[in-house]
Amino acid sequence: MGSALTTIGLPVALGIIMLGLGLSLTVGDFTRVAKHPKAVFIALVCQLLILPAICFGLVLAFGLSPVLAVGMMMLAASPGGSTANLYSHLFRGDVALNISLTAINSVVAVVTLPLITNLAIAYFMPGDATLGMQLGKTVEVFAIVLAPVAIGMLIRKWRPEFADRMDKPVRIASIVILIIVIAGAIVSNLDMLLENLGQLALITVLFCLISLAVGFFVPRLFKIGRRQAIASSFEIGIHNATLAIVIAQTVLGNVELSLPAAVYGVLMFFVALAFGFGLQAAYRKADAAEDAAAGPTAERPA
């Protein structure tokens, strides 16, 4: 990875993305969870406990190298990305719940991401003093994740009209910068990426698919409404791969550590799209059957 891309490009791209998230958030997005406390609690349990456990099992089953194993665990610990809101909207999820989950996850990740990363390093790379997220690096994560979000929220509070005007340009800028930076990163590390693509493609696709399924079906098992379950599914299944890449390369200074997130960050869009259409098709048939059996005035279930 070229030093300019690593030290400047990636953090700037992530900073703009997180600033854009902040521009769309208000304090009400954090307090709104009171309307769906059960859905939020179940989604957080899935995100913080179930997914890391599943990822750990996949890493052991695939026999990844220690560095790639830690990279996968770091990815599992990353919060949902803002792209989850788009997918939730596309497939009729509860976007308001998505926004609240993203806000809460971004705050919680400041603690859980370093914790899970350190546990993974201790297990897969015991005695390695070159990695690890002690207090100083944890503070860096705090600054990378929350500082731009806080600035964006303050702008929205003090200058709401300006925040509304800037929302779309910031989103476009973040996408353009991110594409340029990731493209440059791929080109400069093409040999390393191709060397590991074979063993990372299957595990990242499986992890994404399992994450989406857990995010949807676990809430449904606990009688959470379908729209809330869809929101949970995409929030849990679409991780903030950019955050994992930035932490791996700029905070921990290890390019190989970022490879799982880089592969996941490309493939997750296609997996999530296929999952969404599959979910939509499955429930379209179920709704049609129930409507036919119950009559034309029957309401569809939550």
Topology:
Elements: H1 3-23, H2 27-31, H3 37-62, H4 66-77, H5 83-90, H6 95-124, H7 135-158, H8 160-188, H9 190-221, H10 226-237, H11 241-251, H12 259-294
What does this protein look like?
By secondary structure, the chain is mainly α. 81% of the residues lie in helices and 0% in strands. The chain has twelve helices and no strands. It has helices at 3-23, 27-31, 37-62, 66-77, 83-90, 95-124, 135-158, 160-188, 190-221, 226-237, 241-251, 259-294. Helix 3 packs across helix 9. The longest helix has 36 residues, at 259-294. The protein is globular. Residues 297-301 have low confidence and may be disordered.
Brief characterization of the structure:
This protein is mostly helical. The chain has helices at 3-23, 27-31, 37-62, 66-77, 83-90, 95-124, 135-158, 160-188, 190-221, 226-237, 241-251, 259-294.
Rg from alpha-carbon coordinates: 19 Å
Biggest sheet record = none
Q: Which band does the percent of strand residues land in?
A: under 5%
What is the helix content? over 70%
What distinguishing features does this structure have?
302 residues; 81% helix; globular
